[in-house]
Amino acid sequence: MNSMELYNTIYRTKEKVTPQDGKTISFYACGPTVYDFSHIGHIRSCIYNDILRRVFPYLGMQIKHIMNITDVGHLSDDADSGEDKMEKGARKYGKTVWDLAQYYTDFFFMSMDAVNILRPEIVCKATDHIPEIIELVKTLVAKGHAYETKDAVYFDITTFKEYGRLSGQKNDDKMEAVRKEVSVDPGKKHPADFVLWFKRVGKFENHTMHWDSPWGDGFPGWHIECSAMSMKYLGKTIDLHTGGEDHIPLHHENEIAQSEAATGVPFVKHWVHFSFLQVNGQKMSKSLGNFYTIEDVKKHGIHPLALRLLFLQTHYRQLMNFTWEAAEGANEAYMRLKHLISPLVRDIHKEKIESVQAQKYNKLFVSALNNDLQTPMAVATLWTMLKDGQIPDYEKIALVADFDQVLGLDLLKEEKKTIIPQEIIDFAEQRKQAKEQKNYAKADELRKQIEEKGYRIEDIKDKYSIFPTNH
To answer: What is the CB-side half-sphere exposure of residue 369 using CA atoms within 13 A?
Structure first.
């Protein structure tokens, strides 16, 4: 029996999550805008989505998981007056918009695969759903919730009385919060009205991605895509919708307004939002030099699943501060976990959870998950169980296999070991000694010799790691 309770942002309290049809949880997760590299903050949110994807089947419920890919219409500010992020990224990296979208979509999924995230049942791109988007905009216009100007089609927030319910902001507050210095469409009725469809005029005259519509050649706004695609695959009302907490005041607020204005029924039963990830106490940005991807994690000698373990040790609604020291600690902890598990004697005929003591840990693990997805408690239960001398090895193995259905840490998977030739290890040690003696010319020469033989060396404080060049 499912008794999963999650904090519902819209009601600001924990509530039980149940499927409308009594069988399958309909689950929509906001995916990436594929204009740049996916970073570890994206990975953190996706890991929590993955835990949700795993936990409902673990608790005996079916789940239908949909995730969008935003490849058009997401502007660089919140006032519908910025630049399309895809167009900006294409210029920055010297690619076509279409090639850019594919490149960064591939990088996103490579990053997700590295941390063992299951693929959603359906991954839907905004550019593949233009007909559905246009039909939804037509419905909103017909019902008097949208209006057309020379530049765009806008949603009129004053026609939706409950606008601001998710964020707790009133319409007047939302309007006052809009930056007055921003140049906006003079035909726009209210500052907080948001774009459903951009026309290919003015600054968007040369927009690369464009389609015919009843309002002329153009492209969709950012918010409308999620409503159109979720309705297509999950129906008018979704059981569970997730995203970062930065989506609360704008993107998700707008999703609710346009969806419920169009259908007349609740859009989402349960809203779940993930807290921010900071890096060294600051917001992640390339300008600060603290923008890290999964490739940076690997270069630091951190196992990708150690990063997953690190994130699971902080609750999804808690602000987390990432440091390389914490990542290194998680890497050591992950290796200790594998070390504790690897010598356990496996017996496939006995691997059952039978004893009272083993069942106690199973209940503790399930209880932690049911209580607003308390992954830190779930991980702590795993550690305590492994160190409990009252439980035989075969039950520990059974519990590890059971827990890992949700944790996704590949705890029973044997690692492929890369054997580094002794010659390379000798070069690396000589290089370390040269650096300690401040003989940097010799250290550089030894690095070159290591690289010429097909390996690379990565320094981490006073330690180093060696990888094959294709690692």
So the answer is: 27
